[in-house]
Structures are given as C-alpha cells and as structure tokens.
Amino acid sequence: MGMFVTATFKGQKDEVNLSVPSTAILHLHDRDWVYVPAPGKRFRRVMVAGGDTLPGGLQEIKSGLQAGQQVVTNPLALQNEIDNK
User: What pLDDT shows up at residue 77?
Assistant: First the structure.
C-alpha cells in the first residue's frame, strides 16, 4: 500500500547564496579571486571562497562578495594586461 506525504521545511535563518559566472573566478596561488570595479576606472582583485558549481555556468560564492556587486567576467584578460605593465 503506497503512502504519500507533502512536507515543508523551514530553516532557522534565511540564507543568501551568491553566484557569479564560473569564468569570473581566477584560480591563482591555490586561492580563488575575482576582479571588481574600483574608483578611477580601475579594478581590484578580491579573494573569494567558492562553493558548488551550479547549472548555467555559474559558481556559488560563499564569502568575499556582497549581493549585487559587479565582477569582471573574463579576469584572465585583465590579469594578463596587469602583468604586462
């Protein structure tokens, strides 16, 4: 005899899970980095803690960024330009 149930689970707190395009993450020196805009048409490299790989070419970010913060989606081009100066 089959039995069915409908369940709703509620956590103790709301969680915000950030994600960025996986191409935005630069793996350098055993750490994960992204570039964010900085004043004066410049960019700043920020260390992040990556999480799970998500569908649609996205990567979860556990820490290092705030919701709504912009990131450079192709940091290799930016990193190469900085290294060549």
Answer: 77
Q: Which residue has the tokens 């799970």?
A: 52
pTM over 0.85: no
**Which stretches of the chain drop beneath a pLDDT of 50?**
none
Q: Give the number of C-alpha atoms closer than 13 A to the C-alpha of residue 32, restricted to the C-beta side.
A: 16
Q: What is the 3-state secondary structure (H, E, C) of the chain?
A: CCCCCCCCCCCCCCCCCEEEEHHHCEEECCEEEEEEEECCCEEEEEEEEEEEEECCCEEEEEECCCCCCCCCCCHHHHHHHHHCC
